[in-house]
Amino acid sequence: MPVELTIIAWGMILLLVHIFAAAHVKTKQYGAKWNMGARDESLPPLNPLAGRLARAQANFMETLPIAIVALIGVVVAGRSSEWTVLGGWIWLAARIVYLPLYAVGVPVVRTIIFMASLVGLLMVLRPLLGL
After folding, report:
1. Which domain CATH number covers 69?
2. Which among 17, 86, 97, 130 would be 20 to 30 A from 52, CA to CA?
3. What's the Cα-to-Cα distance from 85 to each of 27, 75, 88, 110, 124, rounded to whole Å?
């Protein structure tokens, strides 16, 4: 199996981590009844940690489709290489590091790590663009 597909699978595990981390902290704030209910009522703003986890999840979900298309694309196009594998691992590793940095509120380093994840994505996309 191509390594790029393994990277996608680990990316899906990371998505589950994002979802459950944000849901856990929201449930701690709003209660189990809220979690199991229709969630129709107006609620107070999320506490800082819950808000950061929700925003980190949204940020991950913004770039995840790009990663999926790029990683599957190089496999389907027969353009997989050491560079696409490296780019995929860089993307995934940076996204793993990004979550706790965002959760604890580290500003500048978090942005640098996000940029590293984009570099990884560009490494995967490059062969698909014929560059």
Report:
1. 1.20.120.550
2. 86
3. 37, 10, 5, 23, 8
Residue 52 is given by DSSP the state H
Q: Does an H or E element contain 129, and which?
A: none
Write out the two tokens for 128. 């698909």
Owning domain of residue 27: 3-128
Structure-token match 């990316």, residue found: 11
Separation of alpha carbons 71 and 58, rounded Å: 20
**Measured between alpha carbons, how far is 118 from 13 in angstroms, rounded to an integer?**
19
CB atoms < 10 A from the CB of 74, how many?
24
Amino acid at 12: M
